[in-house]
Amino acid sequence: MLTWWLAFHLFGLPPLWSKTAVILSALPTGTGPFMLAEFYRREGGVTSSAILFSTIVSLITVTFCLTVMI
Q1: How far apart are CA 70 and CA 52, in angstroms?
Q2: Given Cys at both, which of 1, 21, 35, 65 links 7, Cβ 3.0 to 4.6 Å?
Q3: Which residues contact 19 (CB under 8 A, 6 or more apart)?
Q4: pTM for the structure as a whole
Q5: Which has the closest alpha carbon to 52: 35, 36, 29?
Q6: pLDDT tens, the chain, 70 aa long
Q7: Are 69 and 19 in contact (CB under 8 A)?
Q8: Coil, helix or strand for 21?
């Protein structure tokens, strides 16, 4: 919702760019943070849990965004 408000209202982006920004913000966290956590021997378990949670939530958010925007 924050990205939608920023893209459409605050920045006044063209509709295609605004919709693209909203859909991209609904995507899950990538594996980059996990790889960095493993490289620096930090909280890999916490990072993988965040990735799993964001992937599950993205099923809802991406579906909602695509349904509303298209």
Answers
A1: 27
A2: 21
A3: 69
A4: 0.74
A5: 29
A6: 899 999 999 999 999 999 999 999 999 998 899 999 999 999 889 999 999 999 999 999 999 988 988 7
A7: yes
A8: helix
Quick one: how far is CA 40 from the chain centroid? Answer: 24
3-state secondary structure of 31: coil
Residue 43: which residues within 8 A CB-CB, separation 6 or more?
Answer: 37
Output the six-digit token pair for 47.
């990072």
Interatomic CA distance for residues 4 and 22, integer angstroms: 6
Q: Which domain range does residue 15 map to?
A: 2-69
Distance CA 13, CA 2 (A): 14
